[in-house]
Design goal:
By secondary structure, the protein is mostly helical. The chain has helices at residues 3-18, 50-57, 65-82, 86-89, 92-108, 111-117, 121-125, 128-143, 148-151, 153-166, 177-193, 197-201, 204-209, 232-236, 257-261; strands spanning 218-222, 267-271. The chain has one domain. Helix 2 (50-57) packs antiparallel against helix 3 (65-82). The two termini are 23 Å apart.
């Protein structure tokens, strides 16, 4: 079975299994809403959004070890094992962007998109997700209370919208709802204009997982000595990485598109210690 078909099957299976705990699936309640996006929206969830847990762990100057360690230990385990592979193989937002990426790839061919994509400032803009993680998830929560998960477009998509559809009478808006709605609209525009735009620039979960690429058990390796630098792999990379010159890049989501694209099969999945 082709690698990308395997990845699609993995994304679809995990997407539906993640939603089994949601009201509306009769008789099926797993109580586990991965990858922890459904902290407020899913009444059956026994897990929580890692960002919400982190926010609550430092809420208004308090500190709760359990809420702080719970998401970090889970993300740490996944990160050490597979790096940022969760983004490509499990995340439902990754599945969504797999669809919108078809449009984004057409946009990428326009002169303006090419110019912006190769601008030297682009690589620095990728640090925005780390700023969001530190600034909105930790600092803002510590000083004034949690905000990010109230305006997060992922929560709006996977939580707010399903609740509005399935249980509209139970939905109660809060102060941040208009802001969250605007951000959600911008999020939709972003992922249609830039392939994996959310993953590249804004996802705080990606910021948590990314550094683990440097030490993860599984990673993607390039035979740089034999590589002809045709750059077919880089063109296919949804994260816009210079694949031949990457070495455990924190931006790599291990989707394997470069592996299947290489005409000489010089790019492979590697296992540390093998």
């Amino acid at each position: 079975m082709k690698l990308q078909i395997k990845r699609l099957i993995s994304q679809i299976i995990l997407f539906f299994s993640a939603n089994l705990g949601y009201p509306g699936y009769p008789g099926l309640k797993t109580g586990f809403c991965y990858p922890f996006f459904y902290c407020q929206a899913c009444p059956a969830a026994t897990s929580a959004c890692p960002l919400r847990s982190l926010e609550q762990s430092v809420d208004k100057g308090s500190f709760t070890w359990r809420l702080f360690l719970f998401p970090l230990l889970i993300i740490g385990f996944l990160g050490v094992l597979t790096g940022r592979a969760v983004c490509a193989w499990a995340c439902p937002i990754g599945l969504l962007q797999r669809g919108t990426g078809r449009v984004a790839r057409k946009v990428k061919k326009t002169p303006l998109a090419r110019k912006l994509g190769t601008h030297k400032a682009e690589k620095y803009f990728r640090y925005t997700k780390y700023i969001l993680l530190i600034g909105l998830v930790f600092v803002t929560s510590y000083l004034i209370g949690f905000i990010f998960t109230d305006i997060c477009p992922v929560g709006f998509l996977t939580g707010t919208i399903p609740v509005l559809i399935l249980n509209p009478g139970k939905f109660v808006t809060n102060f941040f709802f208009p802001v969250a709605l605007v951000i959600f609209v911008l999020f939709i525009i972003l992922i249609f204009l830039i392939e994996r735009g959310w993953c590249r620039y804004f996802c705080p979960v990606g910021a948590l997982l990314g550094p683990f690429n440097k030490i993860s058990f599984y990673h993607i390796a390039v035979d740089t000595k034999a590589c002809l630098h045709c750059n077919v792999c880089s063109y296919e990379c949804p994260m816009g990485i210079d694949v031949p010159n990457m070495h455990r890049d924190p931006e790599c989501i291990l989707c394997g598109k470069c592996v299947t694209a290489c005409p000489d099969e010089l790019i492979t999945f590697e296992r540390t210690g093998r």
